[in-house]
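$ run holo --ligand "nicotinamide-adenine-dinucleotide" --emit tokens
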Amino acid sequence: MIPRPTYQRDAATAAIVHFGVGGFHRAHQATYLDTLLSVDPAAGDWGIVGVGLRPADAAMRDALLPQDCLYTLTLKHPDGAVATGVLGAIFGYLYAPDDPEAVIERLADPRTRIVSLTITEGGYNIVAATGEFDAGDPDVVSDLVPGAVPRTVFGYLTEALRRRRDRGLPAFTVMSCDNIEGNGDVARRTVGAFARLVDPELADWIETNVRFPNSMIDRITPATPPELRSEVLARTGIDDRWPVVAEPFTQWVLEDSFSHGRPALETVGVQVVPDVRPYELMKLRLLNAGHQALGHFARLLGYTYVHDAAADPDIRELLRRYMLDEAGPTLDSLPGVDVDDYVATLLERFSNPAIADTVARLCLDASDRIPKFLLPVIASRADEGAAAPLAAAVVAAWTRCAEGVADDGVPLELSDRRAPELIDRARRSRADRLAFVADPDLFGDLAEHPEFTEPYLAALDGLRERGTRAVLAELIR
Ligand code: NAD
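-- output --
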């Protein structure tokens, strides 16, 4: 028998409104609050009212409302163990197109103290090339018409904050939990930019009164596979219309910056800190760059799944040494964080077959990822007068993938918005050896630094002449 939440659940009292109730929110933030509500009777108001803005969210409404917004989370462990629990921190759900005014009033309600977001990277409506708010987006244009019924999160937040200001109520906190570097800063910039277009005085009030904490969030949560519902039913007897599955690992580092109070999240494992940045760097250089270190070699060796590649002893050792010898020394030490343990946990997470993450997904848009995650390690090592030959070899493996053939001769397709130029540069690098890394947009001036180019070219030559297996063996010898 799976226990159900025993705490009081009343949507009218919930102090958090959340936009973007998808798999990740239900596997992450909502689980911390579920634990808090279970252990601390004084935390009773920190329940969540979910809000969906997009047509696809009607399905979440139809799944959650008939089951009183209760749902199951199934954790799949690397050793094959499976555990399912029933979570209750979501007290209510509003599908905004059903009643936009109800959503605005829920946000403007004095009881609402935090508005949290997992609206995806694209939800912040930023022009990639400039980093500026895209005021030309058709939904934004529609929301800027005076008196319009909002369509975007910006429209809802701004109108609700206007009402709060006019009613003399304190502002709520806007807490982004999306996977974006400086997510709170991005939310502050985009909400501020929209509000300024609506009403500059209101924008000033928001700037002064609304806090936008940054956060580092981590738990791999795949989209719900179609077979999960029957699997959960067979194992637990619970027929959940939209169950969630995730890995057991979870982390949430949150900047302590709130406009109108916050739950005592530190009592349930959230690291509430003054500055999230060093934690974010650790994740980017170990987890995200680690994915790159694994992905391109794994593609050349013909692996489909991340867990199979992570079990390959050569790849695993390369990954471990990249993380410990090259990335680790570039990170500031953090209280309570042991990098060796973090790396061991990452290797275990990458090896989890139940997550079934694909190598192709890791290598997608590498031209966005390598410059953000891996190259800063090379640059930071160079600043210290140290080399990063393993990171340089990862760039060589990427170059080799852009040549379009795996070691066994199978063609490799490059899924990258810069694919044509990457393929062209990789082809030219046969004669003009540094052609791939001579693009300043991606590599800055790295092509002029022998501490990078020497190990890079050695690895690239080796991959072409002796193959991936031989190069990996040489790198980890
Ligand atoms: P999901 O597809 O299950 O849910 C996404 C939700 O965002 C949906 O409710 C959708 O309607 C909403 N949304 C999308 N675009 C929007 C927009 N423009 N305006 C308002 N709402 C919008 O996805 P998920 O797995 O829950 O992931 C959501 C986000 O969480 C990711 O984009 C990422 O930033 C973060 N995250 C996810 C994971 C993970 O492993 N899934 C891990 C860390 C962080």
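-- notes --
Residues 11-274 form a domain with the Rossmann fold fold (CATH 3.40.50.720).
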